[in-house]
Amino acid sequence: MFDPPVVGQLSNGHGEFYGTDTWEGRAVIVRYMWQAVSHDKTHFEQAFSQDGGKTWEVNWIYDGARIGK
C-alpha cells in the first residue's frame, strides 16, 4: 500500500509537502519538511494537524548524515 499523494515543492535547500490522511480513525493534514543542513546533512520532520493546519504536532524527526566511503 502506498501513502496518499502529497503536494509541495523544494526550493533553496528546503522542502514542504502536504497531504491528507487518517490517524487512529481521525482525518489529519500531514506536513513533511526537508532541509539541507549542509552538503552532508539533512533534517526531516513529519507533523499532523487535526485543526485544518492551525496547529501542528511534530511526531517524527530524522537527522541524516552522509557516511564516508
Low-pLDDT windows of residues: none
Largest sheet: 5 strands, antiparallel
Amino- and carboxy-terminal Cα gap: 34 Å
Total tally of structural domains: 1
Basic shape? elongated
Structural class comes to mainly beta
Q: How many separate helices?
A: 0
Proportion of helical residues: under 10%
What's the SSE pattern? Answer: EEEEE
The value of Rg in angstroms is 14 Å
Please give the number of β-strands.
Answer: 5
Strand arrangement, major sheet: 1-2-3-4-5
- Please state the average pLDDT score: 93
Beta-strand percentage range: over 45%
Can you offer a commentary on this structure?
This protein has a five-stranded antiparallel beta sheet, with no helix packed on it. The protein is an all-beta fold and 69 residues long. The chain has strands at 7-11, 14-23, 26-38, 41-49, 57-65. 1% of the residues are buried. The chain has no helices and five strands. The model has no long low-confidence stretch (mean pLDDT 93). It has one domain. 0% of the residues lie in helices and 67% in strands.
